[in-house]
Every structure is written in C-alpha cells, then in structure tokens.
Amino acid sequence: MTSSTLTRGETRTSRLPAGDARSHGRRGARPRQSLVAWIFLVPTLIVVGLFTVVPGLFALAFSFTDIGLRDIRDPLQVEVVGTENFTALLANPDFLRSIGNTVLFVVIGVPLTIGIGLALAILLGSGIRRLRPVFRAAIYLPVIANIVAASVIWKYALTYEGPVNEALAAIGVAGPNWLGDPAWGVTSVILLTVWRNVGTAMVLFLAGLQAVPEEVYEAAAIDGAGPWRRIVHMTLPLLRPTTLLVTVLITVMYMNIFEEPYLLTGGGPLDSTRSISLWVYQQFGYGNIAASMAGSFVLILLVAVVSVVQFRMLRPKH
Amino acid sequence: MSALPSRPLRRTLLVSGVALTAAIVLAGCGRASGDSEAAAGTVVGDDAATGTVEFWAAGAEGEALPAFFEEFEKENPDVTVNVTSIPESEFATKVSAAVAAGNVPDATFLLSQSQASMLATDAFASVPDGLVDGDAFFDNMWDAAQYDGAAHAVPWYTYAQAFYYRKDLADAAGVEPPATWDDYAAFAKAMQAQGVKFPIGLSVEWNEYTAQQFNDFSIQAGGSLISDDNAEWTIDTPENLAALETFTNLILDGYASPDGPTFLDTVPWFTSGQIGAYVNGPWFPSWLDEANGEGWSSENLGVALNAAGPGGSTSAIGGGSLAVFEDAKNADAAWKLVRWMSQPENQVAWYERFGNLPAVEAAWDEPVIADDPFLTVIKEAIPMASAVPAVPGWLEVSAMLGSEMERAARGQATPAEVLAAAQAKADAIGTGVE
Lengths: 318, 434
Prior knowledge:
The structure holds two protein chains of two kinds.
Chain A: H1 2-24, H2 29-62, H3 84-90, H4 93-127, H5 132-144, H6 147-158, H7 163-170, H8 182-210, H9 214-222, H10 227-238, H11 240-255, H12 259-264, H13 276-286, H14 289-313
Chain B: H1 7-28, E1 51-58, H2 59-75, E2 79-86, H3 91-101, E3 107-111, H4 112-119, H5 139-144, E4 146-147, E5 150-151, E6 154-160, E7 162-166, H6 167-173, H7 184-193, H8 208-220, H9 238-252, H10 266-272, E8 277-280, H11 284-292, H12 296-300, E9 301-304, E10 317-324, H13 331-341, H14 344-354, H15 367-370, H16 373-384, H17 394-409, H18 415-429
Parallel strand pairs in B: 1-2, 1-3
Antiparallel strand pairs in B: 3-10, 4-5, 6-10, 7-8, 7-9
C-alpha cells in the first residue's frame, strides 16, 4: 500500500510540468509534455495495474462467490452467491471486533506517530545541531530494521518476567502483563508500531521543513515571535501539505496493520489485537477464501473512504 | 489515495469488474460434484531418480533434511533435492496459498493436524500402486492418509505425546507424577514447595495447539469434540465441561500460567524450574540436552503417561506424512524420494539424526529405539493415543476453540459459557464433512 500511495504522490508532482507548460503560451507544447509524462508513468501504471488493480478486481469478483479451499485449483467452478458474503461479514462478531480493534489502532496510533514524528523533526530541524545525523539515523533505524527480528526481540523483552519488567522491578514498579492482558496487549502493539513508523513521519517532516526558507524565520524572530509562536503560526501552516501526505500515509499503514499484531501477539490476548488484515489472513488460512476476499474488500473501501475524507479536510484553503 | 481515479478510468474499472463477474458466472455454472480421478495406474520404476525435486518441510526438520537427503542423492547421482523450510505454524497457510497460486513444489511434508484439510484441496496425487505397503505403517497413520477412497499420502513419522516432568524436583518433593486428574493438586502443591512457580506447563498460545491439548482432556474425560460420523461438533457436552473445568482450574488455582510457556519458552522455563512438567513429544529430551548439555535429561527428566480422567489416559498422536502434488513437475523422482524415506532403514536413520520416530511399525524393534528408556513410555502411549478430529473444519474450529478457552482461563467467562459459545461458532463453521 505504501508504494502505491507513493506512486500516486509522484503522479501529482509529475503533473506539475504539464501545468506549467500553459504559462509558456505555446500551443502544442502541452500535449507533447503530457505525452512525455505518460511515458514516464507507463512502467508504474503497468506494475500497479498488474499487481494491485487486477488482483483487486479478481478479489472483488470472487467476493460475490462461494469460493473455498476445494476450488483453488479450478476457481471458475464456483457458484455466485451475490452479496451473501458481505451480509455474513456484517453479522460476524469476530469481524466487527477486528474493525473495532483496527479503529483503536488508528485513533491512538496515528496521532501518536504523527505527533512524535513532528516533534522530533522540529527538534532535529532547529534545536539539536551537533549530533543531528546520529539522531536522525537512530530514529530512522526501526523503519529499515527487519520487523520479524524486531518483533521477536520485543516479544522476548515484554514477556511477563522478561527484561522490561525486570528493569521496572529494579526501580520498584510492578510491570504489567504486557502480552497477556488485553489492554496492555493493545498498548504493546501500538508501541511497537509507533516505534517502527515514527522514523517515516520524521523524515517526511524534515523534508517539508527544508522547503521553508530560513529568512522567513529570521524575519519573524526579528519581529519578536518566540519559538512557540513560530511553530504554531509558521511551521505548522507551512507544513500543511507535508502533514497531509504524512497523515494519509500513516493512516493507511495503521488501517492495514498486520505484521505487528501478527508477530507480537498473534491477535490475542482475547482477540484484542486482531486487526482486519489479520482476520482476512486467518480466514484465508482456514480456507474461507470468499469471506477473506470480502473482508479485504471492506478494508480497501474503508481505506479509500478515510483517505478521501482526509484529503477533503486537509485540502489547501484558497 | 491522493485522488479517486478519473471518471473514464472509473468507468473502465467498473466495466471490467462486471465483465469479470459475468465471465465467472458464464464459465462457471457451478462445480461438478465428485470428480474423483481414476486411481492412477502410474507405476514408479526401480531405476534411479533424476532431475530436481522441490521438497517443502516444516521448521527444524527442514533444516536437518538437506544433510539427510545427501544419502538419497548419493544413491541417485542425477537427482538434486531442494528443501524449503517453512515455520510449522505457517505451514498449512503456505501450502494452500501455493496451491491457490498454482505454484507448488513437487513433494511436501504434511502435518497430521492439518493433513485432512490439505488433502481436501484436491491438489495431491494418489499414491501409485505398489509404491509402499500400507500394512507396514501404524494403522492410524495409514488411515489418516486416505482421501476420496485412496491413499494420497505416505506416513513418514509418528509419535505420541507424554507427560515430561522434572524428576529431580519431584524426587526432592517426594511425589510421583499425577496418575489421575485428582492427583494434579497434590503434585502441584509439592512441587511449589520446591520453588516451582507453575508446576504444570500447559499449551497456552490459545490457538490450535491449545485446542489439541483440550482434545486430550476431552477424551480423558470420556468425551469427544466431534460425533462418530464426523458430521457435527459435540463441544457443549457434560464430558467436555468436566474437561474444560479441569484444564481451567489448573490455571485459576495457580498451578499453571495462562501466559506461558509459549513455544520458544518451553525449554528455558523447564530448565529454570519455572514449570515443573510439560506435555510434549519424544523429541523433548534431546531438546533439553541440546540446550543444557548431553546427559541433562537422563539426570533431571522423567516421563509418564498423561494423567487419566474418567475416560482413561490419552495423549495426542502426531506425526507427518509425505505427499506429492498433482501438478508436480517431477512426480517420478518425487515418489522415489517418498519411497526412499519410508523404507525402515531410512526411517531409523532419520530417527537417529533428528529424533522423529518411524511410522513403519517394524522399525521400532531396532535396538536404538527399543532400548531408549524415555521411548518405552512413548511406545506404551501410542496405542492409547488419540488424534484430533480429522476433518477439514478442524483448522478453523481449533483456532476458534483455542481463543474461546482463553476467556475461561482468564476468568472472563465460565467454562459452561465458553462451551456454549464455542458450540455455536463451531456449528456455523461446520466440520467440512457432509
């Protein structure tokens, strides 16, 4: 999902030269430039089409059938059952629970990730100067770290009598049952996800900050604006496009959350961390292919709706 | 999702979606029923195998197999066996995904627990006539390989689980391992007096392995999770209530932990004495030796039959079979590999190398197996061991049952409520057998 979203981001920027061409006022320039743009886009379109759109359409089509394990070698022998899979989904308490769990991950995880990412970017962008590359690398490291290895270490660290609770006990705090108690299970998964994604947010915000000219800040400082006012009245409004991009990216990541609960808690304890993606994956494993395809389509719809709403809300004001 | 697709693109998407659905409707016209292929008349010759065989194995076995296959490659100089090792918990999902994608290896290991649902995909070839002698295997293993009226897999290894406990600590406490359910409390209290925090280690990942252990308790209680004809789930019964209460009370009374050991913790928890007993398979002594040094097990480990309930003692039978895919590119060499693996001397060789016990009954008479003190209990356990329900629906029902049981173990619901809920969910899932 990340890559396709990025691709769409590129689509936006690559339209810009085509738009600029109008100001040159030369007739014919625009079609030719847009031809060039299309040529650059074709490889991406082919990849996205082949690996995202076509399988997506297959999934959509099969979500209206009763496809199961017995059909996977010869998928065309299925029976069409209309919207039965979808009505069954909406009556399935486990699926509804997984929607609730996913919403919880999004509602808590997204603001945390963006907030911390932004704070770190501002700190690294203006506050800390000396060890900036070291900090930047350290914070970005989890993004490129292998999530499987990282999760195994987290899992080991968070076991009931593991290193984290031993460390807490050393300072006199009785550590919680990180992976055994439902509320703490959710907390652990969110902590792991924030740890893993905060670097992405930070790097994007840092890039956004670099686009803001230093002189603007100097002028504001001369006019008597303190650091806090400069952040609230200048940095944040100027970062609006970056914030939009980061919000959409991170929200989509959280809506598709899979690896973290899968590896850390397996969806437990008491099903508290089973996300929609994890539910879909498990149904596929049980051979309920139709249900898993219907579930994944519901997820795609939710992601699309949330993304559109976010773009509406954060659209630049003219 | 920076922008919705443009209007023409949207129309194209819609049209192709509709067209695709229509194509399925037109081409499909429903599935044909009972299209069992005629029993293959294929004969696998005695000449050497050639070409490349892609073989999938689970977990640690996959790590050890390449070295083992060198012998086969020596006997068949023109063959190369490529082993892909897949984590055990992923195995069933990976195989069905490969079948779905049409991208299968030549042969694969099938785990007993998921064998029935794997065979139900119709992706496997029936065992060629005369390849192996079905009577040579343990009956329950050969029976489990039957699908659609013919053997579709060849048993590879078999085992029964047993009750492994810290003999050193039990001796110090002056207790014997529990012979019946009623003995659990006395055993646990005595072990706790020796500093063992959780005397009984249970399978508490709250997944299919937990359900497998519950299947033991159910049969120990004289019950069953499934009707004799495999047509319906019989989860909400008085016997199963007794079974779940016994299981749950071990946790609620503080004799077992609901949080561990999970798979990776088993050896460390057992070694440190955090748990005093754990029901596991015959490989357990060698795991402990590997972690703690050769000889640790013979000094500190004891083994006994599982505690008996009103219905007697039983433990899980397990093992694995070998199957060749219908779409195998090199079926001939794959069958030759399977035949080689099922020969008694190679079964013993594999036991010596990895500790997996032969599925061929005669191989158990070999001194290396017959003289092992830990294995005498396993040998005793096999005839009374019981399998999990061999139906396609077990995969989903066991995962559901595992997570339902967690509610009882964490005091969120009573065992009776859990069984009622599990029965309703299991009924909705079905057994997969009409």
